[in-house]
Amino acid sequence: MGRADEGGLCGPAEVAWYIRLLPVVVLVGGFLVDMLTPTQYTSAAFYSVAPVLAAPLLSLQGTMVVGLAAITADAGVLAHYGRLRGLSGMSELLTVSLVAVVAVFINRLLEARESRLRSARSVTATVQRAVLPEPPARVGDLRIAACYEAAEAEAEIGGDLYAVQDTPYGLRCIVGDVRGKGLDAVEAATLVLGTFRMAADEQATLADVAGQMHRALRRELGRREDGERLEWFATAVLAEFPHGGEHVRLVNLGHPAPLLLRGGRVRTVEPSEYGLLLVEGLAEGVAEGDVVVDTVPFPAGSTLLLCTDGVTEARDARGRFYDPPARLAGVRRGGPAELLEALLADVHRHTGGPTDDDMALLAVTRDAPSPSPDPGPGRRAP
């Protein structure tokens, strides 16, 4: 997002068209006040405000047009009332002209800042695509969709993560969140994803996957010098969809609980017991223990939705948190991709615009098995 083509009059594409009309409304309003009120009243303030409003809302050309229109309108009114040659009239026109010039400089400064943000967001998107590659759209009877949306308020890379991996033990997934922003968060997320991918292929149970991840992360952080250690913690949900099964296994490591959607109903899948993936600085005091694995029925037509706290902690103007179960109840969607698209749109409606935190979402839907073809008369089905 950013400013539209410099050849036009419009400014930032995310600004509604009726907001961009505000400088024109102020300009016309000032002209009408001048023409409909006694001569001792002046609308110089209107003519000064209009270019300043145009600076953040319109392009360079648009700001210049509004500035010239303000100068022309003020000069025309002063000439109409015979005040153009007077000292007060010349002073008023000079003030409006200077404000119009300043508005152009403000516009250029804002454009330079917006350009830097666009560049930073482009780099952010490229790095995120490298860290979070697109998952397969289908594995067996499972359809998969994932998305990552960075917070608009910041251009820094976040630590939200997801991964999907088809293994000999079934389809295994992770959605997690590393505290922090920037390169430290990317490094931490890369460590978490790397340990997950290795453990997911090597370990026979989901509990063993979580255990190996914990040991590998602690071992990796233990190799670092004290000055190089990353001060962070990570939460995650691990999910396993066994091949040919109609259930899903879940391990929740201190993360927002996933949602199970089926037939318009939404259920929060709370874990039997939460576990913590890693707390740097407290690692020596964390007992690994036995990781609790929950088994949840997952028949055909079910969808499992996993997300980070950027979704559940999104607030509206009154400070109320977004409530996915309540917002999604009774809503039917065509597939996981459509569900994520609708959910993101609903989050933005709830917040009234951009969110304050990154959001990572993953949805997995189990399709009904395809019916076996009729072998026909006289033939035996294999």
UniProtKB/TrEMBL annotation:
It comes from the Bacteria. Residues 351-382 are annotated as: Disordered. The chain crosses the membrane at residues 15-33, 45-73, 93-110. The keyword Transmembrane applies. The keyword Nucleus does not apply. Keywords: Hydrolase, Membrane, Transmembrane, Transmembrane helix. SMART domains: PP2C_SIG. InterPro entries: Bact_Sigma-Reg, PPM-type-like_dom_sf, PPM-type_phosphatase-like_dom. One of its GO terms (molecular function) is phosphatase activity. Residues 142-366 form the PPM-type phosphatase domain. This is Serine phosphatase RsbU, regulator of sigma subunit. It comes from Actinacidiphila glaucinigra.
